[in-house]
């Protein structure tokens, strides 16, 4: 039996056995991924970025401990609720993706993430929402499996399927 799924101003059908979307909420103020640095022992990721991605990794694992990582191509929808308009949204997205993917060290899995590798991501919707109240800063991520029938852009007069904002 097929399940109807609303996306892009149309109802489409997802086949039996396709995975449902997974939602994650991170109660951390969004941070941009910092550039790799060079040191005496080669290139390294700055400590602040490593710590933030580690916190995202732990929160990912805690929110869906029994969920296996998505396989195949995925679509991510990310909403940043923050007052940090000086940060580049693409670097904020990269920090989230790197924290949520399965982590390896010397070829061994050290953390099972929401997906195996960020090269699985075929589509993205990202938006920054102004939130002056620091206690309400958060990042919401929805991951969906990509199907060849998916249409990502809402039609004229339609609304975003998640937040219902009007996109003209």
What does this molecule look like?
This protein has 168 residues and is of the alpha+beta class. It has a single domain (19-145), classed as Holliday junction resolvase RusA (60s Ribosomal Protein L30, Chain: A, 2-Layer Sandwich). Helices cover 17% and strands 33% of the residues. The chain contains two helices and ten strands, in the order E-E-E-E-E-H-E-H-E-E-E-E. It has helices at residues 47-63, 89-100; strands spanning 3-7, 10-14, 22-26, 37-39, 42-44, 74-82, 103-105, 108-111, 121-130, 138-145. The strands form four sheets. It has a four-stranded mixed beta sheet, covered by helices on one side. Strand 4 and strand 5 (42-44) form a beta hairpin. Helix 1 (47-63) crosses helix 2 (89-100). The chain is globular and about 45 Å long. Residues 1-17 have low confidence and may be disordered.
Keywords:
alpha+beta, 10 strands, 60s Ribosomal Protein L30, Chain: A, four-stranded mixed β-sheet, disordered N terminus, 168 residues, single chain
Largest sheet: 4 strands, mixed
- From the alpha-carbon coordinates, what is the Rg to the nearest angstrom? 17 Å
Helix fraction?
10-25%
In the predicted model, the low-confidence regions spanning at least 5 consecutive residues are: 1-17
Look up the CATH topology.
60s Ribosomal Protein L30, Chain: A
Under CATH at level 1, the class stands as Alpha Beta
Q: Beta-sheet strand percentage?
A: 25-35%
- Please state the average pLDDT score: 78
